[in-house]
Amino acid sequence: xxELERFTLTYQPFEERIEEYMGLRKRSTLGxxxxxxxxxxxxxxxxxxxxxxNVEYEEKRIDLIFNGELASAVNGIVQLAxxxxxxxxxxxxxxxxxx
Length: 99
What we know:
Layout: H1 2-5, E1 7-20, E2 25-38, E3 41-57, H2 59-83
Antiparallel strand pairs: 1-2, 2-3
């Protein structure tokens, strides 16, 4: 019993929020870190347990990129192709903005 009393288990909750791809995707992770100690000294590595994970997409920012920067770049390439005498069949459609 004395030997078991020297072991302690510590839990620490964590929350991570990470923005990826220029803020277009947001990932949040919830859980806890666990560490076993013997007589105050850590045993092994700290273990991370994820209890919840969520990924969200920023539709408005995606639409702004498609309707703004990407559409103007594609239109510029198409106009350059037309001036060089290349055959252009159709321009890409614009995405509808989400309100």
